[in-house]
Amino acid sequence: MLYSKKVKIKYIIWCFLPLVALVVLLYSCASIGSPTGGPEDWTPPVFLKSSPSPKALNNKRSKISLTFDEYIKLEKAAEKVVVSPPQIQQPEIKASGKRIQVNLLDSLKENTTYTIDFSDAIVDNNNDNPLGNFAFTFSTGGQIDTMEVSGTVLDASNLEPIKGILVGLHSNLNDSAFIKLPFDRVARTDSRGRFTIRGIASGSYRIYALMDADQNFLFSQKSEVIAFNDSLVIPQMEKRTRMDTIWVDTLTYDTIIEKQYIQYLPDDLILRAFKELNYSQYLIKSERLVPQKFSLYFANKADSLPVLKGLNFNEEDAFIIEKTYRNDTIHYWVKDSLLYAQDTLSFSLTYLYTDTLNQLVPRTDTLKLVSKQKLQKKEEPKKKKKKKKDEEEVEPTVFLPVNVGVASSMDVYGYVSLKFEEPIAFYDSAAIHLRHKVDSLWEDVPFEFERDTLNLKQYNLYYDWEPTGEYEFSVDSTAFHGIYGLFTDKIRQEFKVRSEDEYFTLHFIVTGADKQAFIELLDAQDKVVRRRRVENGIADFYFLNPGKYGARLINDRNGNGVWDTGDFEKKIQPEEVFYLPKLVEYKALWDVNENWDIHETTLDKQKVDDLKKQKPDDEKRKKEREQRMAEERARRR
């Protein structure tokens, strides 16, 4: 009986053994490598259908449903999606699965073309591939308005593309429409500063750009960035023909065919955006951070200083006043130690103030300033006893701090600077020395020494340096005395002037500039390195260090040497700015003429990408994709 059972078990095993072997073989064939999931998807979503249908007429429904071929999501919908005409109540826009639901909360206007411009906000759910430049249109009347206008919004001061600013049209041609009425049609700029306003009816319009802080679609706050065009915008369209090529492969084409298309004009508008100066004058704040100094900060420049009258002290000859050239920031250094030792300084301050009628009127405030830092009492110098009973050591003298600006390798055009932490009461010019090394001997040379025109606490030494020359700058002890009793220690520093062979010279030969234009030479971060006036069409830059440079030109209408903003009420555009449409790079000893026609390249193409801080979104996405692909390759290894 037991034997019979064993035979049956063996028989069953032998029957199932081939089946088990087959299963193992199939499993091993299927497990050669781990699945990769196929190639990554780079295609954007595809629009399939909608309710109502695209370009529907006589539509009365305020709820719109859009369907796509894959799961999608909305990227920064509040920033990118714009409904035109503009909606006072923000529409509800949601993505769910393969659909987007839009609910317009404002009542629909009769006989009006509506455009929902998604820009590149619609992306697929997996790889964020954008469906770029997508817009949905319908009409509440019997026709669709199809006109479009396009252009670019740039920062007027530096030609930087402005992302996310509203651009709107007004059929009301009065200037007051911009500050009293919401736009008729709107769009929003993309990451390149480009905009397209769609669904426009035939006619004449004013066009504006607005960084709409309060979302009311009109210029209601002076702090808002704006732009306006001096000329009317008249939308047009024309039929054009382009040549399309049908290729057999990457090297061989089959046929070239002509295709007609409609071009909407104008498509090259340039709006230069700016923020108006705040002309309102008022006292922003007053502070006394340390006992011996207090500061006043005003909102705007002033032609004169405010009148200060002490209430618990005599203000006559009580201060050394340090101020900016605009008189908007004023520091009062208190001379008398007994005065700044007071806990509270009380005084009346009379200054010009902008009232509710926008008029400058005298105003008097009473201020009581308490120092945020307690006054440190001076202690008598302590005497330290040495090992020998008959010898005593006094603590080191506390000198007036000074920052000596002397490069060990001095530029040919450089200068020596002395920067102090407090105003100087007086100094001894005879205690300041400059010596030049000639044939191993040091010779005293004359020089110019003066206080800096913009900084009360800085003094500069100027000299026409001899290239490759060796110099010694020195100051005797006690040469400079601060207003609080401290004096400087002795200073001595040697330096050598660089050779002329280390520099290059650049001459800009300019065409199209105003008589009072100036050029700013820029580094790779768009920061100003040098500034020169254009005289007779030429601006010369000497002793430049080898490297890459950019350049911008400012048509200085008022000749004040700085870029000035615009004024909408006075219809003043900001001063024009132009960029050299390339970076220049030259080596030492070169002497170069650079021809520059400021109008040869359109404004939106002048500033090179290397200098732009606002980078296009598609470039960012490309870098993100490359990073994801690199991570995927590393994971597969």
Brief sketch in words of this structure:
By secondary structure, the protein is mainly beta. Helix content is 10%, strand content 41%.
Q: If you had to describe this structure to a student in words, what would you say it looks like?
A:
The protein has 637 residues and is mainly beta. It folds into 4 domains: 194 residues, Immunoglobulin-like (Sandwich); 88 residues, Immunoglobulin-like (Sandwich); 100 residues, Sandwich (Immunoglobulin-like), CATH 2.60.40.3710; 109 residues, Sandwich (Immunoglobulin-like). The chain is built from 5 helices and 46 strands. The strands form 14 sheets. The protein has a 5-stranded mixed beta sheet, with no helix packed on it. Strand 22 and strand 23 form a beta hairpin. The longest helix has 29 residues. It is globular, with a radius of gyration of 37 Å. The N terminus is likely disordered.
